[in-house]
Design a protein that fits this description.
eight-stranded mixed β-sheet; binds S-adenosylmethionine; alpha/beta
């Protein structure tokens, strides 16, 4: 199986488990620039490894981190030093130091503290309150930054740094509307907005108007695009797929989310890729509607592993 490059931070909606599938669907598509209006952790771009990319997000902490890695103000050695030093304080204070770092981060937004918090917060999922402050409690493991975890994180910084160095990448902290206005018809857009009606926080709220604006902007750009969204879970179907995105092709894959700590507490979701071009396993939107109406399987993609061809060849 192909190695997946995992970023040094984690966030809600991270596509680590879907990246193989997404890559396999884009590997034969020609484009001159890869664009992500919602880059999040960047796991998709860092695995597709396009030669040119515009990667944007409204969350400044994500963009500052990757800009820092790009301009070498953040290196694996600096990250290692920081995590060892702060990890020691965490251990000595039996975890209390986490809240000191969180307070400090919420006043100065330091990217090193961002990595520290992202890797020691409860559930490893960052969230921001109404004022934009990081508000996740501590994971309650004072020995969180054991040597093995520090090594893992610093390796992740090294991998990402090498990928960024080899490509021509631009990171921008901006709203998706601005990114849409910067698109050209020879771009390829991977669009992964927050899912409507799911978790909402300061950087992650999403409305029907946003969804409609996004669709309009993508169509107007004439660029090829893929949108990540969900098709259905055991309770309901995402109606936006058949209204806002009704003229798109759709490819689906089953994905399991763990609920709570128990291994068998899993909820299945059909993840969807919607596109204005034909994808590897896609069917038309109306064909999918027929399948749902006739209670036929909504799966279009097999569960096999895929091996994307990379625009950049890396020796990591
Ligand atoms: C589902 S996540 C993207 C996850 C990403 N593909 C990954 O695998 O890590 C959605 C992202 O959209 C960003 N976002 C939310 N509203 C936005 C907006 N109005 N403009 C730009 N980015 C936005 C959030 O900060 C978040 O990082």
């Amino acid at each position: 199986m192909k190695k997946i490059f995992v970023p040094p931070i984690k966030s809600q909606g991270i596509k680590t488990k879907l990246v193989d599938w997404i890559s396999s669907n884009v590997k034969d598509i020609d484009y001159s620039r890869w664009v992500e209006p919602f880059m999040g952790t960047g796991v998709v771009a860092f695995n597709v490894m396009p030669a040119r990319a515009l990667l944007c997000d409204s969350n400044p902490h994500l963009i500052n981190l990757y800009k820092g890695i790009q301009n070498k103000t953040i290196t694996s050695a600096i990250v290692k030093h920081h995590l060892i030093e702060e990890g020691d304080k965490l251990l000595q204070t039996k975890g209390e130091h986490y809240y000191e770092v969180r307070k400090r981060f919420n006043s100065n937004g330091d990217s090193l503290d961002f990595i520290f918090l992202s890797r020691s917060c409860f559930n490893g999922m960052m969230r921001f309150n109404k004022g934009g402050g990081f508000n996740v409690p501590f994971c309650k493991k004072p020995n969180r930054f054991a040597q093995s975890l520090v090594t893992k994180i610093t390796n992740q910084v090294d991998y990402i740094s090498e990928i960024i160095d080899r490509g021509d990448y631009t990171f921008k902290n901006q709203d998706f509307r601005v990114t849409l206005s910067e698109l050209s018809s020879d771009d390829f857009v991977y669009s992964d907005p927050p899912y409507i009606g799911r978790h909402v926080d300061y950087f992650d709220s999403w409305t029907e108007e946003d969804e409609i604006y996004l669709k309009g902007g993508l169509i107007e750009s004439n660029a090829k695009f893929i949108l990540s969204t969900w098709l259905s879970n055991k309770y309901r179907v995402n109606e936006y797929v058949f209204s806002v995105w009704k003229d798109c092709n759709i490819s689906t894959k089953e994905h399991f989310y763990h609920v709570g700590a128990k291994e068998d507490n899993r909820n299945a979701v059909y993840e969807a890729l919607l596109s204005n071009i034909k994808l590897k396993d896609s069917i038309t939107n109306s064909e999918m509607q027929n399948r749902i109406d006739s209670k036929i399987s909504q799966l279009t993609s097999s569960t096999t592993n895929h091996y994307p061809s990379l625009q950049l060849s890396l020796n990591l």
